[in-house]
Amino acid sequence: MRKVWLILGALALALPAATAAAPPKLPVFNVTIRATMDETRNWEDDVQGCLESVTRHIEIENAKPFTLSASQLGHAKGNLFALVATETRSITFTASKANACVGWPNGGQSADCGTVTYSIAASGTGLGFLSLKTDKFGFGYARIGADPYHGNCGLIANPGQTTIIDHYPAGLGLPTPTTVAVNRNKLTTHKAFVVTYSGSGQWSDGGLSNGSPQPLSQVAVSWQVKLIPVPLFRAVRQLR
After folding, report:
1. What is the rounded CA–CA span in Å between residue 189 and residue 204?
2. Residue 85: predicted pLDDT
3. Would you say 174 and 197 are in contact if contact means Cβ atoms under 8 Å apart?
4. Which pLDDT score is estimated for 234?
5. Mind listing the pLDDT tens digit for each residue in 28-77?
6. pLDDT at site 15
7. 77-81 — which CB contacts under 8 Å span 24+ positions?
8. Is the pLDDT of residue 122 over 70?
9. Is 211 left (phi over 0), alpha (psi -120 to 50) or beta?
10. Which pLDDT does position 115 carry in this prediction?
11. What angle is formed at CA 14 by the lines to CA 13 and CA 18, rounded to 5 degrees?
């Protein structure tokens, strides 16, 4: 009997020690973005008696599928991705005097300017928690580029100048960038989650033209970010 115990003891010593369980892998997320911006911008010359209103509806989404890891989303800095914007614009003139708007863009004629599509470069985007210790989750985009309407639908006087869409809106009465409080633990649960935001505000550039502020802009913005975990074996391939 003693021999049996000695043999069993020797076998136990020969077996490898149980290894500690490896910590779970942090997930990688497929990212889907949908955003809108609605803006009405007014210029008024109360001496000439002409009011110009430009209305824009812009829909924005990611240009192609992309992934971000939990670590990347944990700090938004450096998370760059291209977006596509589809804008519908119209221009309206209201004259309080005869021929008051004749010298204005588009000959002072109201018009529906149609719908155009253009890109927002990755260098103007950002997504994720604003720092490693905050629960503030933000999404932002900015574009400064040639007017897609070639100067024929308000906002600017010449086709070579630029128009701006900016969802880091410092002067719109909105947070900069707009953020939502999100539990950071969502990054590690391997479950899909959605973050949404909507808000509105107005601003003036503070300039004066014949006694009238130029321009006054009313803006409403919204966005939705869907984050769906990628199965682990796919995530490894996508990150390589």
Report:
1. 44
2. 94
3. no
4. 53
5. 999 999 999 998 888 777 677 888 888 999 999 999 999 999 999 998 87
6. 44
7. 77/126, 79/125, 79/126, 79/127, 79/128, 80/122, 80/123, 80/125, 80/126, 81/31, 81/122, 81/125, 81/127
8. yes
9. left
10. 97
11. 80
Tokens 């973005």 correspond to what residue?
33
Distance of alpha carbon 217 from alpha carbon 222, whole angstroms: 17
Q: Where are the domains of the chain?
A: 25-239
Residue 147 CA to its chain's centroid (Å)? 20
| Whether residue 215 has a cis bond before it, omega within 30° of 0 | yes
Residue 213 has pLDDT above 60, yes or no: no
Does residue 96 contact residue 152 with C-beta atoms inside 8 Å? no
Evaluate whether 91 touches 110 at the Cβ level (below 8 Å). Answer: yes
Contact call for residues 231 and 33 (beta carbons, < 8 A): no
H or E, element range at 91: strand 83-95
Structure tokens at 124: 């103007």
Question: What is the structure's pLDDT at 42?
Answer: 83
Collapsed DSSP state (helix, strand, coil) of residue 44 = strand
- Quick one: how many helices (H) and strands (E) in the chain? 3, 11
Characterize 16-38 residue by residue with b for buried, 16 or more Cβ atoms within 10 angstroms of its Cβ, and e for exposed: eeeeeeeeeebbbbbbebebebe
pTM: 0.77
100-128: burial string, b at 16+ Cβ within 10 Å, e else: bbeebbbebeebebeeeebebbeebbbbb
Give the 3-state secondary structure of residue 11.
helix
